[in-house]
TrEMBL record:
PANTHER family: CARBAMOYLTRANSFERASE, CARBAMOYLTRANSFERASE HYPF
Pfam family membership, one: HypF_C_2
Domain called Acylphosphatase-like: residue spans: 3-88
The protein's name: Carbamoyltransferase HypF
The protein's role, per its UniProt record: Involved in the maturation of [NiFe] hydrogenases. Along with HypE, it catalyzes the synthesis of the CN ligands of the active site iron of [NiFe]-hydrogenases. HypF functions as a carbamoyl transferase using carbamoylphosphate as a substrate and transferring the carboxamido moiety in an ATP-dependent reaction to the thiolate of the C-terminal cysteine of HypE yielding a protein-S-carboxamide.
Active site residues per record: R18, N36
Length: 765
């Protein structure tokens, strides 16, 4: 036979792929070698059944592997060489991906619980099928010397496992044991506490204490989820009045507190081990302060040996929320945690394995039978995404997203690398971390962009950073309108081709900079990747008080009612209600003057602010939001499990060359229902159905007018599971594919992915 080189690209490093190749080589009589390099895995085959070998490569790869391509080429060296070996990594230019962190596998779980195993109760057990990857990675290609495990020299027993092709730890780079690996300890006030760290930590948690726990991607703050006093104290110390806390428990415990479908259980058990939003159920009490006003809780399984041992010792659900003060980045270093978290926790469960980068827990939910990723972080990032047909040949792009829920995105070789969640850039510390992450991704993936993409908003820190990068690198800057990027993100995730027909994009969102000088957020766009045209929007109303309206829903309620029927009429219809009394204490007349004179009151078509206004009308977070989306989330919760008996009406009106979806009839119906003391849950359900029906009907009409090839849905408001489900139901049977988002967030966490698609398309024109 002629010798061949076989190139395998994809997620093939740090997943046990080389040992898998070694075993297949023995099965098919292949002589040669395999190595990691900057492009993935390179195999040299000098003898044996190469055709059978290559076919088997793609059939049953290791659990964490994902093969994008297998290419064969002559080697030009036909000397038969005996045996098959794994050789040293070739440190060439990095053109391969990095593997996300993976939850503990069943074999490692069984091992740490088995008293006869040498890793019994060891908090850092892992193998080629599980454990830390991206969170410890410092360089590509992936091997131990390129990770934060470099400082832990393998003991003879671990070395023997590492070098044994028959062992599941064969070439497992984070391999460790109690004799040579990271160690765990419990400390209070800087002093280590005697005894078994897990046992003592569990004792403190059961006693109502708050612990800082170092995990894979950073620290968590933990307490007993059933202890009302502990949960309220954690809220006070963390300065997080109402935003929901994530919870950790085993599947059995989760089932006692939540409704878990088979799809949701599979998602809980996925190697990504995300937080899964599940409907509340059961009669076993948990603390009411976990998620005030909401009908869902975020649950995750213990995804590391440390977590599994702790959960077994505690025997009850735990709060497991990010280790930070509200709005700040998660702590990852031991000294950093002591300084930032020490003042408001009772003890630390600490270890000495360094964390290379901050990784929050990912957040997902199942809607209409599909996964919907709300926060893309640990377990998902930085797995590459395919660029759609037609965009794969574009020059490399770097895009820097928006201001909230920020993420960046790099493209090369037909792939997009969408970063993990980087936080809200309004916070100065989060912006510092964003800048570090931009350098980290650029270095790690050896990326040199030929185009930089940014949002249109000139005051976004991400835009200003992109401008600086474009100038520094001497490359062009492409500015992308916020909602065009949202729609392009949905198109690209669904593989819509560059030469496909225009789509009718529906972007229901918070706020985005509009080129007409208004603030957009409820948009119907005729869109290709390169261009868009605004066909319709929600009827604009003043954003009364500017940024203050993003925090104080009562302002949006006044603006909406003023626009719908005039404030005097609305106030009369509110009568002597509790809402009327609350608004009477507000400077409503001053606000009306600001709106009439257009002082600090730009017009906005924001769907997010409409939800805030409806929530305020129903008494939800009227005065002030304590976290983004609070009123909208509570409004969705009110409607949980309720079948609306009718839908509130919306009107479509013409305005110059654009149509407006006018909520005035909805407000008339809603105020009537309030006066008639209709149940708030029914009012919320009628609103959701009315908006969904009006959105879907207008989308179908506009799609027909432009001969659209599909309808695309995106924007942060589509995180609302009820609204998304209703819109999808209304569009069912419309005769067009509906492009909704799944593994790319519909919120601003997916914005950079849309920006790279737009920039790539414009570069190819």
């Amino acid at each position: 036979m002629a010798a061949e080189k076989i190139r395998v690209r994809g997620q093939v490093q740090g997943v046990g792929f080389r040992p898998f190749v070694w075993r297949l080589a023995a099965e098919f009589g292949i002589s040669g070698d395999v190595r990691n390099d900057g492009e993935g895995v390179l195999i040299r085959a000098f003898a044996g059944d190469v055709d059978g070998f290559v076919a088997a490569l793609g059939k049953e790869p290791p659990p964490l592997a994902r093969i994008d391509s297998i290419a064969r080429a002559p080697l030009g060296d036909n000397v038969i060489r005996p045996g098959f070996s794994i050789v040293e990594t070739d440190r060439s230019e990095a053109r391969t991906g990095a593997t996300p962190d993976a939850a503990m596998c069943p074999a490692c779980r069984a091992e740490i619980l088995d008293p006869g195993e040498r890793r019994h109760r060891y908090a850092f057990a892992n193998c080629t099928h599980c454990g830390p990857r991206f969170s410890i990675l410092k360089e590509i290609p992936y091997d131990r010397a390129s990770t934060t495990m470099r400082g832990f020299e393998m003991c003879p027993a671990c070395r023997a496992e590492y070098e044994d092709p028959a062992d599941r730890r064969f070439h497992a780079q984070p391999i460790a044991c109690p004799d040579c690996g990271p160690r765990l300890w419990l400390e209070r006030d800087g002093a280590e506490i005697d005894g078994d760290a897990i046992v003592e930590a569990a004792r403190l948690l059961r006693a109502g204490k708050i612990l800082g726990i170092k995990g894979i991607g950073g620290f968590h703050l933990a307490c007993d989820a059933a202890n009302e006093d502990a949960v309220r104290l954690l809220r006070e110390r963390k300065r997080r009045p109402k935003k929901p806390f994530a919870l950790m428990a085993d599947v059995g415990a989760i089932r006692r507190h939540a409704r878990v479908s088979p799809a949701e259980e599979a998602l809980l058990n996925d190697p990504a081990a995300p937080i899964v939003l599940l409907g509340k159920a059961g009669d076993i009490p948990l603390a009411a302060a976990l998620a005030p006003g909401l009908s869902v809780l975020g649950w995750m399984l213990p995804y590391t040996p440390l977590h599994a041992l702790l959960m077994e010792a505690v025997g009850a659900p735990l709060v497991m929320t990010s280790g930070n003060r509200s709005g700040e980045p998660q702590a990852i270093g031991n000294d950093e945690a002591r300084g930032k978290l020490g003042p408001f926790i009772d003890a630390f469960l600490m270890h000495d394995r360094p964390i290379a980068r901050r990784l929050d827990d990912s957040v997902v939910r199942i809607v209409a039978g599909d996964i919907r990723l709300l926060r893309r972080a640990r377990g998902y990032a930085p797995a590459p995404l395919d660029l759609p047909p037609g965009l794969k040949s574009a020059p490399p792009v770097a895009a820097y997203g928006g201001e909230l829920k920020s993420a960046l995105c790099l493209t090369r070789d037909g792939k997009a690398i969408l970063s993990h969640h980087l936080g809200d850039l309004e916070d100065a510390l989060s912006y510092e971390e964003f800048q570090k992450a931009a350098k980290d991704y650029s270095r790690l993936f050896d990326h040199s962009p030929e185009i930089v993409a940014a949002d249109l908003h000139p005051d976004y820190r991400s835009t200003q950073f992109a401008e600086g990068e474009a100038e520094r690198l001497g490359v062009p800057l492409t500015r992308v309108q916020h909602h065009h990027a949202h729609i392009a993100s949905a198109m690209a995730e669904n593989g819509w081709p560059l030469d496909g027909a225009p789509v009718l994009g529906v972007a229901l969102d918070g706020l985005g900079y509009g080129p007409d000088g208004t603030v957009w957020g409820g948009e119907f766009l005729a869109a290709t990747y390169a261009d868009y045209r605004r066909l319709a929007s929600l009827k604009p109303v003043p954003l009364a008080g500017g940024d203050a309206a993003n925090r104080e829903p009562w302002r949006n309620l006044v603006a909406q009612l003023e626009a719908a029927m005039g404030w005097d009429v609305a106030a009369e219809r509110l009568g002597k209600s509790a809402l009327s009394d609350l608004l009477a204490a507000k400077p409503v007349e001053n606000l009306r003057t600001l709106m009439q004179r257009r002082l600090n009151s730009p017009l906005t078509s924001s769907a997010g602010r409409l939800f805030d206004a409806v929530g305020a009308a129903l008494g939800l977070a009227v005065d002030r939001l304590t976290y983004e989306g609070e009123a909208a989330m509570e409004l969705e919760a009110l409607a949980a499990g309720i079948s609306p008996d009718r839908a509130y009406p919306f009107a479509v009106v013409a305005a110059e060359d654009i149509r407006r979806l006018d909520p005035a009839p909805m407000w008339d119906a809603l105020l009537t229902d309030l006066a008639d003391s209709v149940a708030l849950g029914q009012i919320s359900a009628r609103f959701h159905l009315g908006l969904a029906r009006a959105t879907a009907h207008l989308a179908q009409k506009l799609a027909g007018e432009i001969s659209a090839g599909a309808i695309a849905l995106s924007g942060g408001v589509f995180q609302n599971a009820l609204l998304l489900r209703l819109v999808l139901e209304e569009l069912d049977g419309c005769g067009l594919p509906v492009l909704a988002q799944r593994e790319v967030p519909a919120n601003d966490g997916g914005l950079a992915f849309g920006q790279v698609a737009v920039a790539a398309a414009r570069a190819l024109r």
